[in-house]
Amino acid sequence: MVFPKLSGRLLIAIPGIALFLVVLFKLPVVWGIFLFSTLALLAGYESTAMCVPHGLNEFSRVLVAFFAGVSTYFIAVEHVLQIPALILPGAAVAVSLLHSSGPVHSRRRIAGTAGLASLYAMGFGLMGRLFLSMGPWVILVVLAICWVGDSAAYFVGVSMGKNKLMPRVSPKKSWEGLFGGLAGSIAGALGAGYFTEIPFIPLLVLGFAGGVAGVYGDLFESALKRDAGVKDSSSILLGHGGILDRFDSAVVVAPVALVLLHLFGIIS
């Protein structure tokens, strides 16, 4: 069985993962929040290109990205301005496009960009909140749900996948891969969760619920890329696409994790 481009992708991923771990485990917590804000900033910048390939000038793109990063910080630290800050990326898009192109394609350009930038700002902000509440291992639980699940889905899908899941959205995804991915997400949650204070049952529920949410986060971003006619949201990660590509599941799993951990009484 051949798994295309696997070794090359791993060689590129390992240094990035190592840097991520150093920031979360070795540096002061402020650097972790800075990391999540930076990821949101880059995601906001990418969202402008995906939803508005023409008509948004560079200053407006940078402004959207900046507001996405600021929103993430306010959400992470539970600042009183977190909700107003969350609408700032959309406001920047709306003002710029209303002046430059009026109502033409405003639903896709304004609503799409605003929604996408705000979604990633919220997701990374909630990851920052989890980080401040429970430390770095809970972030690894979120990422393990996504990345172990995604890897398991890939291997099972390539080796056994026959029944397509949503061929119009993502032709390579299969039901077999979905179930393999859910098993991987549960295993990832239990493995990383061993180093946290989260009990077994909440981890099991989180692995399953997060696995389902992660799949649909990935499908959502695939649909956006297919509609935009692009393979990746950007090339910033050298062979892994962009921030939107790599964290499309994580920004959906983070709020699921926060809600479930709250319902189980683990965080208040």
Query: How many domain units?
Result: 2
Report the β-strand fraction as a percent range: under 5%
Distance between the termini: 47 Å
Mean pLDDT score: 87
Helical residue percent band: over 70%
Q: Largest sheet, described in full?
A: 2 strands, antiparallel
Return Rg in Å: 18 Å
* Order of strands across the main sheet: 1-2
Q: Which residue ranges are poorly predicted, with pLDDT under 50 across at least 5 consecutive positions?
A: none
Shape: globular
Q: Using DSSP, what is the number of strands?
A: 2
Protein described:
- Helix 6 (106-134) crosses helix 11.
- The chain contains 11 helices and 2 strands.
- The radius of gyration is 18 Å and the shape is globular.
- The protein starts with 5 loop residues before the first helix and ends in a 5-residue tail after the last helix.
- The chain folds into 2 domains: 27-134, no CATH class; 135-268, no CATH class.
- The chain has helices spanning 6-26, 29-51, 58-76, 82-86, 88-100, 106-134, 136-160, 175-193, 200-228, 243-246, 250-263; strands at residues 164-166, 170-174.
- A two-stranded antiparallel sheet has the order 1-2.
- With 268 residues, it is mainly alpha-helical.
